[in-house]
Amino acid sequence: MNSPNRISQLDDYTIGHIAAGEVVERPAQVVKELIENSIDASSTKLVIEIMNGGFDRISISDNGSGIHHEDLPMALDRHATSKLKDQEDLSSIITLGFRGEALASIGMVSKLTISSRPQSMDGKQIVMSDGDKGNVEPVGMPEGTKIDVENIFRNQPARLAFQRRPATETSKIVDVVVSHAIAHPEVSFKLLSDERVLLEVPIVENIEDRLYDVLGGQAGKMIKLNSPETDENAPGEERWDGWISTPDITRGKGDEIHVLINGRPVASQPFNQSIRRGYKTRLMQGRHPVAVLKLNLPPEEVDVNVHPTKREVRLKNSWRVLERLERSIAFTLETTPTEPESSGGITGITSLSPETKYQRTVEKPAWATSAQLSLTGEKAIELPKEDKKRPISEPVVNQSTITGEKAIAPALSIQERQLHRNAGLAATSPSEGGPIGPVINDLPAMEPLAQFADSYILVQSGEELLLIDQHALHERVRYERLRYDESSWEPQDRISAIPLDLDPRQKAKMDASISILNDLGFKFGSVTGGYTITSAPALLKGDDLQPFIHDLLLDLSEDGAPLETLERRKDHLAFLNSCRGAVKANEKLSLPEMRRLLDDMRRIPNPWACVHGRPTAMRIPLNALDQHFGRHG
Ligand code: ADP
Ligand code: MG
């Protein structure tokens, strides 16, 4: 048996390094801590300068209250703070900082210089280099505080090895500055990276103006969050307000959901589900809205002391708070007139709610779920019926369908509906496009018999009669063709350069991702302060280009994402285009066109479901018909 290892107390220096590891993970984290300190000091003007993604230098100067020169050495000690006195204060924190750890931790892993000049005092500064504290020296400077962090992690090769590329870090830093800029319209922010201005926003009276400055044009399309009147009397003092995007503005990632709790930017992830629920069926699978959500509640109802970086907080009545958010979003969308439905009514929860039960059960993309369906389902699912002045036949007794027993088809989202409505505009004939590939499924030979109601193809398939939804099938076929046909992704030069609108965050990500985008078939020209698109994959048409790049930029914000990202993007684009060009219902098809469609059906995986996860066909076996007509006695 091994003898036990003996326990010994760690020295302060080692303890400091362990603590520093938690508080300063990366340069963007340092920027966040320093901005918080400046805001806590009631600053109204912040200038942030970074060099080489913050790895060479991070400098922040503010015009806040400053640090008394006698406190300068203490500002560098762990658990030394001016923001709380005892444990009791911990239960009602109104400042952004309180742990007294940031400066001490930063000073362990960099060369940190604090220079400060409070009102009517002289400027003084102190340096801490890799954990060694220097003396307080005089320095000439304007009122306020300036913090310089040089060569972060230079003394920690292990940590340095795990850092992102400088360009990636820069875009993360832009994110940090943006989220604080949204939280504090009363403060002006200026961010420079390698001496270029990335963001500059003046002091504004209200958050709406700030949103325009940081989010650009899309801010104008956002709607103010409202709560139902009944919520006023609901228990609890918590209140939500803010802005959300209409369902037509979405992102591939949740990065543009900003949640502020009592003015503190926090991770939005815990709120995502409630947000999604609030949007009901309006968001397509995998899409996220743009939102600024501000929660105000008594400080003792939120515990900010759960995570060293304070990005995560705990709410006393989280369930209640989340329900309120969901209700507010739903109410806001319900009471805001958006695109009219084809029926002439206004889009709203009332018309969508009967269908939500289908939506709720689907977590994976619908087409992925349906790929797992067996071919011997039990009963036909009653899909949400649309108002149509067309005969609807009674279901045949004992019919067998190809769908599973569970409800798998989500209701159409607004966008899907819109797409379907426009489906025929640029419809391609089912006989257009090259062959998809070899026969890959075991469908028997199929022969079209006729078309019913110009929407369904009657097909003889061995011992079965198939009723095929021509739109659903063509959509599926087009999806496979677009998705896997290399030629749709080949770069195509554009006749004239297309201007690309980028906000400061997108611009920074663009700078960081140019070479990846080049690999994807994009080429860019430059214009003052921005980019134009000169070449792009063939499949991408004019209107799709900008949103596609915006989505890619979001996904590319972290290293290592591009490949997975591109696959998802390709999917999404093929998905959108498959519907757009597909033959629609109520359209006459010739026999050769039907034959072509059926032939293609044998060349795609999972031919039984359309891209939305709804069935493409209904199967009626001959013996079910025999039974129905009493032929088996
Ligand atoms: P905390 O913010 O949790 O108190 P920090 O290590 O971030 O801990 O900062 C230590 C102390 O230094 C703060 O409590 C504050 O008194 C002082 N300080 C830091 N930055 C500034 C600043 N920009 N302006 C004025 N005081 C500051
Ligand atoms: Mg702090």
Features:
633 residues; alpha+beta; nine-stranded mixed beta sheet; 19 helices; binds adenosine-5'-diphosphate; binds magnesium ion
Distance between the termini: 80 Å
* Main sheet record: 9 strands, mixed
User: What is the tally of helical segments?
Assistant: 19
Q: Which assembly state applies to the chains in this document?
A: single chain
What is the CA-based Rg, rounded?
30 Å
Low-confidence runs (pLDDT<50, min 5 residues)? 338-411, 421-426
Helix content: 25-40%
Query: Which whole number gives the mean pLDDT?
Result: 80
Q: Rough shape?
A: elongated
Secondary structure tally: strands:
26
Structural class: alpha+beta
Bound molecule types: adenosine-5'-diphosphate, magnesium ion
Characterization of this structure:
This protein has 633 residues and is of the alpha+beta class. Helix content is 32%, strand content 21%. It is built from 19 helices and 26 strands. The strands form 6 sheets. Strands 1, 2, 3, 4, 5, 6, 7, 8 and 9 form a 9-stranded mixed sheet that branches. A 5-stranded mixed sheet has the order 10-11-16-13-14, with helices on both faces. Strand 24 (523-527) and strand 25 form a beta hairpin. The longest helix is centred in the last third of the chain and has 20 residues, at 562-581. It is elongated. The relative contact order is 0.09. The structure holds adenosine-5'-diphosphate and magnesium ion. Magnesium ion binds next to helix 2.
Could you give the topology of this structure?
Blueprint: H1 12-23, H2 27-40, E1 45-51, E2 57-62, H3 72-75, H4 102-108, E3 111-117, E4 124-129, E5 132-133, E6 137-138, E7 144-150, H5 157-161, H6 166-183, E8 188-193, E9 196-201, H7 207-215, E10 222-224, E11 239-245, E12 250-251, E13 257-261, E14 264-266, H8 272-279, E15 288-289, E16 291-296, E17 302-303, E18 314-315, H9 318-335, H10 349-352, H11 356-360, H12 366-370, E19 400-401, H13 414-422, E20 446-452, E21 456-461, E22 464-469, H14 470-484, E23 491-500, H15 504-519, E24 523-527, E25 530-537, H16 542-555, H17 562-581, H18 591-601, E26 617-621, H19 622-628
Parallel strand pairs: 1-8, 13-16
Antiparallel strand pairs: 1-2, 2-7, 3-4, 3-7, 4-5, 4-6, 8-9, 10-11, 11-16, 12-15, 13-14, 17-18, 19-26, 20-21, 21-22, 22-26, 23-25, 24-25
Helix pairs in contact: 1-4, 2-6, 6-7, 6-15, 8-9, 14-17, 14-18, 16-17
Bound molecules: adenosine-5'-diphosphate and magnesium ion (MG).
